[in-house]
Amino acid sequence: MNKTRLEAFSDGVLAIIITIMVLELKVPEGMDFDALKPLFPKFFSYILSFIYVGIYWNNHHHMMHTVKQVTGGILWANLHLLFWLSLIPFVTAWIGENNFASFPMTMYGVILLMSAIAYFILQSQILKKHGPNSVLSKAIGSDLKGKISPILYIIGIICANFNPLISGLMYIAVALM
User: Fold this and answer.
1) Cβ pair 104, 91 in contact under 8 A
2) pLDDT tens per residue across span 12-53
3) How many CA atoms lie within 13 A of 79 on its CB side?
4) Helices 88-97 and 40-64, interaxial angle, to 10°?
């Protein structure tokens, strides 16, 4: 299969994910700054999730430039990634609607962790096909961020049970890396 089809499909799914997230932002009832205050949690959750989807889109784009041939394993791994990313609008709305409460923040972290694992699986499938001397293999290097991110997600998931603020800071830290 040609990789352009996989890229186009993935870009379309990611565009829909962002569209769904922005549609969750409702117009305020009033016409002053006070009318915006109740929307802050939703807006902040949208910003964080938009950044995450943007990071995945950017990384996916660069990774696909290294792909010469797509296998069935790569297709299924890509769908696996898109599945987890497609849940981001749900958990984004959930944490925004519930002011970053413990359980929604836990589930937000679970979705981020599963997305990271799915990305790693996709990357592994591409490396399996293209080998240890491939462009992707050289670009990844030691992949320190890829090793630290899941640990920070797990810390965030655990912290969400007793302090959702720390949980949120863990998720922000990963995005900043």
Assistant:
1) yes
2) 999 999 999 998 888 888 888 888 888 899 999 999 999 999
3) 7
4) 160
